[in-house]
Design a protein that fits this description.
Strand content of chain A: 15-25%
Shape of chain A: globular
Mean pLDDT of chain A: 95
Number of domains of chain B: 1
Radius of gyration of chain A: 27 Å
Radius of gyration of chain B: 16 Å
Number of domains of chain A: 4
Structural class of chain B: alpha/beta
Strand order of the largest sheet of chain B: 2-3-1-4-5-6
Distance between the termini of chain B: 22 Å
Low-confidence stretches of chain B: none
Number of strands of chain B: 6
Largest interface: A-B, 56 and 57 residues
CATH architecture of the largest domain in chain A: 3-Layer(aba) Sandwich
CATH superfamily of chain B: Pyruvate-ferredoxin oxidoreductase, PFOR, domain III
CATH superfamily of the largest domain in chain A: Thiamin diphosphate (ThDP)-binding fold, Pyr/PP domains
Shape of chain B: globular
Strand order of the largest sheet of chain A: 3-2-4-5-7-6-12
Oligomer: heterodimer
CATH class of the largest domain in chain A: Alpha Beta
Mean pLDDT of chain B: 93
Structural class of chain A: alpha/beta
CATH architecture of chain B: 3-Layer(aba) Sandwich
């Protein structure tokens, strides 16, 4: 790569490029929208031979990824750990201790918040973690800044010997923009690790108290460093103040520029969110005649500003998320414009039929849910009578028709432990937990240990599609070969489950849904923990590898009874012109529809091996 | 071109809306312009509603578009085009493939798909510039089934030359690699419709 180059990059790609320009050596994370493309990009660059770094791999969960990166940093390697907002909750234990150990080489923690939310279980504002963990938080506003801040983050981290949190939101992570990037820098360090008990050992309380004091003193230096790095800036000379950070800054500038209002306003754009830069904020508050704070999710800056103004006895009026904006959801340009112009926002939302994402054509989860429904019925219960505790992943889409299967979907691994809770409370009927393979390895495994140890009557179905499907097919512990080229030791899920002490285990093929149902029927009433592994690769991966057969509907035999559609919900079945047809380009030939057709009107057609670009 | 051009692409996950957006963004970059794209997508790999937003100009700030302010809406599917109605003003060019993709609720018989005439009426109430293009059928005739979106893009470029067509063709080649030739042919077909 030459000196400086303008590329079209997604925010997450820009972060990956920034890390490479900063000489990152170790990167890890757990996939989660909208953060996944950072590690994906690094891995693709390795796969295409464009870069070579010591260790860039997905981890089993966020806390493990975090600890890998912290350890690497203590060994002298610049490290990057990435996750979506709930992932930082998973990693919060090592996060809070990391201020006490500090780092050697720079460590950047990318946490991608999701105002909206578009793809996340909670609308979490991770900026609060800065205060909780006593670590600096920086927030870029667009892909170019995401690139620059990534690099600055490493410099800041090394100056203060603490990890730095970079908080982004979907509109930064997933925005594609022209981005100017500089050359990548090869990591240069000699791995080493020295003993330093007061820093690294947490078993001596006096040391912990001393480190706490040192960390607070270090944080006091961050404001001056932020000035040096120009992380915060004031624009405009007007009387009316706007304080903003992140993507909200781009909305503010756009609204002011398009309404020719720049002259009337003074804008404080904060790149350092924690610790709040007191000098620049107070100077700003003294200059302006009223302030509007514009930020994503919580009134974080607004509360900080109000507290600073109160301490200094400033009378300036400060309004923000609490007064001028919807308290939930993502900001829009229209929200920002009406807040700045003081206009009432007219809402004329169109009410239309929803289009929730269905399970994909030939998705193995379709067969598992068909088997679950039939098995529960064979065991003497009505569908909808037995709680099906869901988990985080594509299979949560079993909440939609035709299955309407999952009763609850909470947090990674919670399906099993919350099912244990139902039984602990004395819930009288059988309980089923459904969980994906990657979610099982991520957190479900500890829940299963609990269930086995307490000998809870519980049926667990692990829907093993051999990948992290929902976020774009990242590696699980069952991958033998990483995209990076690393040879990995493949775990065997059945052996893992058996090793945890589960005695009743069955491995079934979801494309044979009756075999799934038979095991469900057999296991549902049995005492203790039972595990069914419903195993079949994600249909998208299968399609990429090559489809060998497809199904088709013989119009002479089809009575249009719609059993296929209503029992599978497969999107490859089309009802246009009121006749059932199978869209050949969508079909993966799983035969689930064929298995339920009462008239044998669905047949197989061999098509050689057709690889489909999906 | 004018100081800024904004496009909403509305479709169903898996239809290639994000790739189309990437092609246009790359063409803007090749033309020396600034670009921002954003997206609203569901949590799955495919099958849910997806909207992409693009802004192209000498300077661009955010990827978002204000209500009624899109210069163009590329509708890959009619229900999804109407879902993006908030961005459509009376100047907005709407390029629509009218072939519906049923939702899961339609498929299992829980609710019907809206009447196409009704969906078109809602678009026509907002804009004077609705162009109905049988992109999927046209692409099948070209034996380029995966390039239907390029036909819609070609049609838009023929109406509003917001980027030079040769830069778009160059961008198609960069983004699509080996699939590019069929896509370029589809783009040219769209230009001529």
């Amino acid at each position: 790569m030459h000196h400086q180059q303008s590329l079209v990059l997604m925010g997450n790609e820009a972060i990956a490029y920034g890390a490479l320009t900063a000489g990152v050596a170790v990167a890890s994370g757990y996939p989660g929208t909208p953060s996944s493309e950072v590690i994906d990009t690094l891995l693709e660059l390795i796969a295409s031979g464009k870069i070579n770094r010591p260790y860039i791999e997905w981890a089993v969960n966020e806390r493990v990824a975090f600890e890998i990166c912290l350890g690497a940093s203590l060994a002298g390697a610049r490290s990057l750990v990435t996750m979506k907002a709930p992932g930082l909750n998973v990693a919060s234990d090592p996060l809070l201790s990391s201020a006490y150990s500090g780092v050697e080489a720079g460590m950047l923690i990318l946490v991608a918040d999701d105002p909206g939310p578009h793809t996340t279980q909670t609308e979490q504002d991770s900026r609060w973690y800065g205060e909780l963990a006593k670590l600096p938080v920086i927030e870029p506003s667009d892909p170019q800044e995401a690139y620059e801040y990534t690099i600055l983050g490493y410099e800041l981290s090394e100056k203060i010997k603490l990890p730095v949190i970079m908080r982004t939101t979907t509109r930064v992570n997933h925005t594609v923009s022209d981005v100017k990037v500089r050359e990548f820098i090869e990591p240069s360090y000699t791995p080493s690790f020295s003993r330093n008990p007061k820093r690294y050992l947490r078993a001596v309380m006096a040391w912990n108290r001393e480190r706490h004091r040192e960390v607070l003193e270090t944080l006091d230096r961050v404001e001056s460093l932020a000035e040096e790095f120009r992380l915060n800036r004031v624009e405009g000379l007007g009387e009316l103040g706007i304080v903003c950070s992140g993507a909200a800054y781009t909305y503010v500038m756009e609204v002011l520029e398009k309404n020719n209002l720049l002259d009337g306003y003074m804008i404080l754009k904060l790149g350092l969110i924690h610790p709040i830069p007191r000098r620049i904020v107070l100077e700003f508050l003294r200059k302006v005649n009223g302030v509007v704070v514009i930020e994503e999710i919580d009134p974080y800056l607004e509360m900080k500003l109000k507290s600073l103004a109160y301490d200094e006895g400033l009378q300036v009026k400060i309004l923000g998320r609490q007064e001028l904006f919807p308290r939930v959801g993502e900001l829009t340009l229209d929200d920002v414009e009406s807040a700045i112009l003081g206009r009432e926002l007219k809402v004329d939302e169109v009410i239309l039929p929803m289009r929730p994402p269905p399970l994909c054509p030939g998705c193995p989860h379709i067969g598992t849910y068909m088997g679950l429904r039939m098995g529960i019925s064979k065991a003497g219960y009505k569908w909808g009578e037995i709680p099906v505790m869901g988990d985080i992943g594509c299979y949560a889409l079993g909440l939609n028709p035709p299955f309407e299967a999952v009763w609850i979907e909470h947090s990674m691994g919670a399906s099993i432990s919350m099912a244990v809770g139902l039984k602990a409370a004395g819930y009288p009927k059988p309980v089923v937990a459904v969980i994906g393979d990657s979610t099982f390895y991520h957190s479900g495994i500890t829940s299963l240990i609990e269930a086995v140890h307490k000998d809870i009557d519980l049926l667990v179905v692990i829907m093993d599609n051999l990948t992290v499907a929902m976020t774009g097919h990242q590696a699980t512990p069952e991958y033998e070969l990483s995209i990076s080229g690393r040879r990995m030791k493949k775990l065997d899920l059945e052996k893992v489950v058996r090793g945890l002490g589960v005695e009743k285990i069955a491995v079934v093929d979801p494309y044979n849904y009756k075999s799934v149902s038979e095991k469900i029927r057999e296991f549902l009433h049995q005492p203790g923990v039972k595990v069914i592994i419903s195993k079949r690769a994600c249909a998208i991966l299968e399609k990429r590898a090559g489809v060998k057969q497809v199904c088709w509907v013989d119009p002479k035999k089809c009575t249009n009874c719609l059993a296929c559609v209503k029992l599978t919900g497969c999107p490859a079945l089309s009802l246009l012109e009121d006749r059932v047809e199978i869209i050949e380009s969508e079909c993966v030939g799983c035969t689930l529809c064929m298995q339920v057709c009462p008239y044998d009107a669905i047949l197989i057609k061999k098509i050689g091996t057709v690889k489909i670009n999906v | 071109m004018c100081s800024e051009y904004s496009i909403v692409i509305a479709g169903v996950g898996g239809q290639g809306g994000l790739t189309l957006s990437r092609v246009i963004a790359t063409a803007a970059n090749l033309s020396g312009l600034s670009v921002k794209t954003g997206e609203t997508l569901g949590m799955a790999q495919r099958g849910g509603s997806v909207q992409s937003y693009l802004k192209i100009g000498r300077i661009t700030r955010s990827p978002l578009i204000k209500k009624g302010c899109a210069d163009a809406l590329i509708g890959l599917e009619p229900l999804e085009a109407v879902r993006a109605l908030r961005y459509v003003g009376f100047h907005t060019k709407v390029i629509l493939d009218p072939n519906p993709i049923p939702t899961i609720f339609n498929l299992v018989g829980k609710e019907g798909y809206p009447r196409i005439e009704e969906l078109l009426r809602r678009l026509e109430e907002r804009t004077r510039h609705l162009y109905i293009i049988q992109a999927r059928r046209e692409s099948e005739m070209l034996n380029a089934r995966q390039s239907a979106n390029m036909i819609l893009l070609g049609k838009l470029v023929s109406l509003d030359a917001f980027l030079p067509s040769e830069k778009i063709e160059e961008a198609i080649r960069i983004v699509l690699g080996e699939r590019a030739e069929k896509a370029v042919a589809a783009f040219r077909r769209g230009m001529s419709l």
